Amino acid sequence: MLLDEARQVLEIEADGIMKLIGRLDHRFEQMVDTIMHAHGRLIISGIGKSGIIGRKIAATLNSTGTRALFLHPVEAMHGDLGIVCPDDVFLAMSYSGETGELNLLMPSIRKLGCPVIAMTGNPESTLAKYSDIVIDVGVEKEACPLGLAPTASTTALLAMGDALAVVLINKKHFKSSDFKRFHPGGALGQRLSREVSDIMLSGKSIPITTTRATMREAVAEMDLHGLGAIIIVEPAGKLAGIFTDGDLRRMIARGDSIFDQSLPEVMTPAPLNASAHTPAFDALNIMEQHEITILPIIDQSRRVIGILHLHDILGKGEFKFNGTAPEKKERLE
């Protein structure tokens, strides 16, 4: 019985979110463009449960490259309105659209001249009439059996805020390396603050062979380590090139006779690289700029001392290039 009730709550909330998809239209695009072109900040305001959701959305936006600030409607009426300027965008959140404290503030916001966006479940509400752009986040019913406690409605509001944040991440080309500046105490921030030597693979963990090795030997070594690449060195140990599984796929696609060719013929010579003392932050910038996942690590004599994979910086399954999953573009050119 308890599990059935819990499942019903999740189904109701999931249904509420799914029905938002069909309502996405040009107004969402207008909201994104308005925020993108604003010279000021996104000021988010709401009260009660909507205010709590508003604080969370503001936090998500701030950590992903969009300057945002939460303004309590009551505090705004008692002096905090001074933080809002015409260059800002004002985002008002109220499911009913008839929240007294918020609507009392709206005439003052309109006088300031900043664009006003409403996220509400009632597109015909007083709040909607004060707004330039109205985003409908209405749900058919609350998960609360009494229909009183905001449940599905706050979930829908939060989901729409997340949709806004993610679209802005992609529009602004916010990168993982930018994350360090806003999360210096987080796990990713800590990894990015370290030197390459702290996170690179070294010793027997390096997939490496010499220019004298056969293609069959190189492919076997690459497969053994499972990093998608093998570093090629001169007999003296100096970096000569790199060969990736992407290179191998392209050879197969062209119908090349793979094992009849030598490594110097198929490798990428003089690949991008880094030193052991390179900050992980800088190594990540190189990877994102060139959309590669592997960096050979060399010493002052260009001898290979390690290899750095993007996973070692970001953690497996967490990396994306400018918001889109990489297509394993591993050739270092």
Automatic annotation (TrEMBL):
Signal peptide: none
Site positions (Catalytically relevant): 49, 101, 142, 183
Domain called SIS: residue spans: 31-174
Alphabetical list of InterPro entries matching this protein: CBS_dom, CBS_dom_sf, GutQ/KpsF_isomerases, KdsD/KpsF-type, SIS_dom, SIS_dom_sf, SIS_Kpsf
Keywords: CBS domain, Isomerase, Metal-binding, Repeat, Zinc
GO BP: carbohydrate derivative metabolic process; carbohydrate metabolic process
Gene3D superfamilies in UniProt: CBS-domain (3.10.580.10), Glucose-6-phosphate isomerase like protein, domain 1 (3.40.50.10490)
GO MF annotation, one: arabinose-5-phosphate isomerase activity
Pfam families listed in its UniProt record: CBS, SIS
Start and end residues of each CBS domain: 200-258, 267-327
Binding residues annotated for Zn(2+), in chain numbering: 72
PANTHER family: ARABINOSE 5-PHOSPHATE ISOMERASE KDSD, PTHR42745
Record-stated family: Belongs to the SIS family. GutQ/KpsF subfamily.
Protein name (database record): Carbohydrate isomerase KpsF/GutQ family protein
Organism: Desulfosarcina ovata subsp. sediminis
